[in-house]
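RESIDUES AND SHAPES:
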Amino acid sequence: MNWIVVADNSAELLQDAGHILCKRKMRVTGFRFGQALLEFLKDNQPDLILLGSVLWEIGGFEAITALKNAHKTGKEIPVLLMAGRAEQDMEARARAMGAAGVVKKPLVASELMANVLNILASNPQPGVQENAPICNTLEEVANTLEERNESTIGMWMGSEAFGNVYRHMLRYLERYHGIAFQILFTVEISKSFDARQRLEIMTQFRRRLQMSLRSSDMMMESGENQVFLLLPEVGEADIGHVISRVIEDWKKTEYGPSTDIISEVRQANLNRGAAQEDAKPRTDWVVVVDDDVANLKMAGLILSRQHMRVTALKSGRALLEYIRNNTPDVILLDGGCRRWTALRRCGCSNRK
């Protein structure tokens, strides 16, 4: 297994590079600060350093030679630079200082992998035969698992890994009498966008959402336009603020005016002993519609305390679209909500 170290000040770029490399079954270690990278390389020898903006923290192009020979054994580590499209003169200067090449930012998966695989092929791992089993020491395995750079953003996982961690998290919260909230964000995207644009919108939403969360918060993609969150140790008075902050922040983005964010929230149903294990969980589904975010927050808090599923919408138009394919148990509607007349015409005010 090839081991790649990625170093850049941008958490978003680290995430993109890690995603691309991990899909090719490569081991990836990320750093956001140059000094931490230098300390790490004294006792560790990855197969390649993918170096971004931290280059300027550690001396510019002259630092490439130091990085290549940073390991105490003196064995060289190839360095591949990441540069912005505007930095046209960087490749010649980087190669002159010993870099193996330059890849352009923003990263393109095919371009990055072509460069990485070419460099790795030119610098085979010494003493490792093809198809030979890879044996690591206990210390090496532990170092791989340890979080060397404390993350400050939410954890993004695939569905299989998320399911396992999710169950362990709930059991931990049950044991230590914690609390957690579940949120499902649905991004309603205009049909005028093509598939590529829809993918870009969801990618941008996921990134902004992840950056707004804590390192203890968990995220999982659910369908092509939904994101599921588990937020442990969030107070009841704070969950509404979290949701409104996410929605308001997204509305300020390029795609915000062309999309609607629908949120569903409920408190995680943690078993607190045999009596509650035998109790039938509440599964009532309430849609709350109001122009006022404060009212949405208050209604969501009250209902989620009763373990009800809550969907918050900010306009009558959003409600009309939503109930075409969804059937909640109750619609809690502000009498002054926009398009109330249209709702009465369609008869949805007669729902349960």
Notes: Residues 127-134, 273-280, 341-352 have pLDDT under 50 and may be disordered. The chain has two domains: 3-145, 155-350. The two ends are 58 Å apart (CA to CA).
